[in-house]
TrEMBL record:
One of its GO terms (molecular function) is nucleic acid binding. SMART domains: Mterf (SM00733). Keywords: Transcription, Transcription regulation, Transcription termination, Transit peptide. Belongs to the mTERF family. InterPro entries: MTERF, MTERF_sf. The keyword Transcription regulation applies. This is Uncharacterized protein. GO terms for biological process: DNA-templated transcription termination. The keyword Electron transport does not apply.
């Protein structure tokens, strides 16, 4: 039979004994069987074909991924893709996940992967959008790490630290490291050090939910120790509500970033003590870009005659929007000063809540100074002119 088929396929035209449609069908069937047989004998070919055509990987990405996974069947792989689509992933997102963790294609979706998705949803309390986000950040660790030995134990430790499901969700959404990192050996010792220093539970919770990267293991023990030493030198009280913000901001930039920020302020006439004082009162003033600090400070110094000593006592001014807050209010207040309604422009005018400012300094004077609203709402072009 095989010899006959070979002869049939090797001939230049079908024999007269077989009608053309039947001959065409037989030839097509034999070609499919040959392709399947070849793919089974060559898993690499099947793998590359699946990576390109079912997962959407480019040729170079598929070649690279194929070096890490070999498919002898696509049954498991198709089930994995179905699970990812069920999460709302499609197209380039699926390609991104598979390229980062091609091993997933050989996992049993129903036994290994689905329980992890259910865990993220039901135990941790993440939405599908949250799961998609953390999965795309680190596909391998999120889906390949053991549920029993890593993900669930970390979750239980985290819940013990944070107390409520809401806090756990907030922390995990900020950093999925808390789920797949080594919480026992990396996070808990740092928390112990902070508690011994006097950090309250509220401070620890705020650190983990607002500035988790200052504590997770990617930053290493040395950076934590350097940040901890710096925060103690600055004299920030561990029980004060500002502590987690100061620690979080400092951890992101210490030590080289801190020096650059400090040098920028010093170049504007501030003293080192004034910069430290400002940081302790409002840590985010040190994370403002150097260009914005220079722009705002020059405006305060040139237009308002304010000194570093005066501004460092209320450093939140540095974080205000120059175009949306400082300039519009300056235009209004400048008019009021020129007409004698107020004596001078003070810090309180700039940090006052939006509604209160409009009611007190715009609406209150519209009858006598109708141009105030126009001055307040003027666009950026007018703002540049007003400088």
């Amino acid at each position: 039979m095989l010899r006959r088929c070979h002869l049939l396929l090797g001939g230049s035209r079908p024999p007269k004994s077989l009608p053309y449609p039947r001959w065409h069908s037989l030839k097509h069937l034999l070609s499919i069987r040959a392709a399947v047989s070849h793919a089974a004998a060559d898993p690499c070919s099947l793998t590359l074909h699946f990576l390109r055509n079912s997962c959407g990987l480019s040729e170079p990405a598929a070649t690279k991924a194929a070096a890490r996974v070999h498919l002898r069947s696509t049954k498991k792989a198709h089930a994995v893709l179905a699970l990812l689509r069920g999460l709302g992933l499609a197209g380039s997102d699926i390609a991104r996940v598979v390229a980062a963790a091609p091993d997933l294609l050989n996992y049993r979706a129903d036994v290994t992967l689905a329980p992890k998705i259910d865990f993220f949803r039901r135990d941790v309390g993440l939405s599908d959008a949250d799961i998609r986000r953390i999965l795309l950040l680190d596909p391998y660790r999120v889906l390949c790490y053991s549920l029993a030995n890593r993900l669930r134990p970390n979750y239980l430790l985290l819940k013990d630290l944070l107390g409520t499901d809401q806090n756990v969700v907030a922390a995990v959404k900020q950093s999925s490291e808390f789920l797949h990192g080594n919480v026992q050996s990396e996070l808990l010792p740092k928390v112990k050090i902070l508690r011994e220093y006097g950090a309250t539970d509220d401070v620890i919770i705020k650190l983990l939910t607002k500035h988790p990267r200052s504590l997770n293991h990617k930053y290493g023990g040395s950076l934590f120790n350097d940040t901890f030493a710096a925060i103690k030198e600055l004299g920030v009280s561990p029980s004060h509500g500002i502590f987690p913000h100061a620690f979080g901001v400092l951890a992101r930039m210490y030590p080289s970033g801190w020096k650059r920020k400090m040098d920028n302020y010093l170049s504007l006439g501030w003293t080192e003590e004034q910069v430290k004082q400002a940081f302790v009162r409002h840590p985010y003033c040190i994370s403002v870009s150097a260009d914005k600090v220079r722009l705002i400070w020059q405006f305060f110094a040139d237009k308002l005659g304010w000194t570093p000593e005066y501004v460092s006592a209320s450093p939140m001014l540095i974080s205000l929007s120059y175009e949306k807050r400082i300039l519009p209010r300056y235009r209004v207040l400048h008019i009021l000063v020129s007409k004698g309604h107020i004596r001078s422009i003070r810090i309180a005018h700039l940090i006052l809540g939006e509604k209160k400012f409009v009611d007190k300094y715009v609406t209150n004077y519209l009858e006598t100074i109708p141009q105030l609203m126009e001055a307040y709402r003027a666009g950026t072009d007018s703002a540049v002119t007003a400088k």
